[in-house]
Amino acid sequence: MSRTIVLTGATRGCGRALVDAFASAGHTVVGCGTRPELVEQLRETMGAPHSFSTVDVASEQNVEAWAGKAVKEHGAPDLLINNAGVINRNAPLWEVPEEEFASVLGVNVGGTARILRHFLPPMLARASGVIANFSSTWGRTTSPEVAPYCASKWAVEGLTQALSQELPSGLAAVAVNPGIIHTEMLESCFGGGAAGYPSPEAWAKRAAPFLLNLSTKDNGRSVTVG
Ligand SMILES: NC(=O)c1ccc[n+]([C@@H]2O[C@H](COP(=O)([O-])OP(=O)(O)OC[C@H]3O[C@@H](n4cnc5c(N)ncnc54)[C@H](OP(=O)(O)O)[C@@H]3O)[C@@H](O)[C@H]2O)c1
Question: Which of 134, 149, 154, 203 is catalytic?
């Protein structure tokens, strides 16, 4: 059955590869990113019924407008994936500027909560749907120089578990560690070592069916893409 999938961070990296994998499996993707030129490329490449919008998940105004339009055109999402994320430049915590710390928390945690605040009500009204909040190995362990990112992903784990205790039956919230994938984000923290990891396209071949398989049985779980 064809599903409607809302995907934040659809323009690059893991999200961009998921767009192709979901679309070729016959699902409709409603995606976003902040860079208008990448959103336009997605529109041209994918066409209808998919839809892509320029949205900053850190902006209440952007998300409110996007959710209103998306739900009107496509209905409540069957699968809502909070994938958009940013990482701080490698540095000890005391050297991370105030604005950079706020941005990592604002996108990774605030953005996830904001997307949920606007997309969950129609899912609740329909009484079905799965939410996959992208966490990380660094949402369950830590490393030096990425403290803001670790703090944000540990928060995503906590937020997801608490949310799972609030949801009525028929809905599920799951924290998903995607694994380690060679994207621009990985290059930022691993440098040249990033090249040794799978491409987003190879990863998406496993990740798309894994995400589509999540169900109400997984509510409250912390899972890792195998
Ligand atoms: N790569 C890994 O190994 C790895 C490991 C663990 C967890 N993760 C998680 O997996 C997710 C995807 O990571 P990735 O490696 O694919 O990162 P990436 O290559 O840097 O891509 C990030 C995506 O998020 C979008 N984005 C960033 N800020 C945004 C904002 N404020 N509003 C809307 N979209 C925004 C970007 O689009 P624009 O440029 O258009 O804004 C881009 O599409 C993230 O949550 C990340 O924390 C990745």
Answer: 149
- Asked whether 9 lines ligand 1 (CB < 6 A), one says yes
Ligand 1 neighbour 85 (Cβ under 6 A): yes
**pTM of the model as a whole:** 0.99
148 lines ligand 1 (CB under 6 A): no
Domain boundaries, the chain: 4-224
pLDDT tens, residue order, the chain (226 aa): 999 999 999 999 999 999 999 999 999 999 999 999 999 999 999 999 999 999 999 999 999 999 999 999 999 999 999 999 999 999 999 999 999 999 999 999 999 999 999 999 999 999 999 999 999 999 999 999 999 999 999 999 999 999 999 999 999 999 999 999 999 999 999 999 999 999 999 999 999 999 999 999 999 999 999 8
149 is catalytic: yes
| CA–CA gap between residue 58 and residue 72 (Å, rounded) | 22
Q: Smallest Cα–Cα separation from 11: which of 45, 44, 34?
A: 34
Side-chain-side CA neighbours of residue 151 (13 Å): 14
Class level of CATH domain 4-224: alpha beta
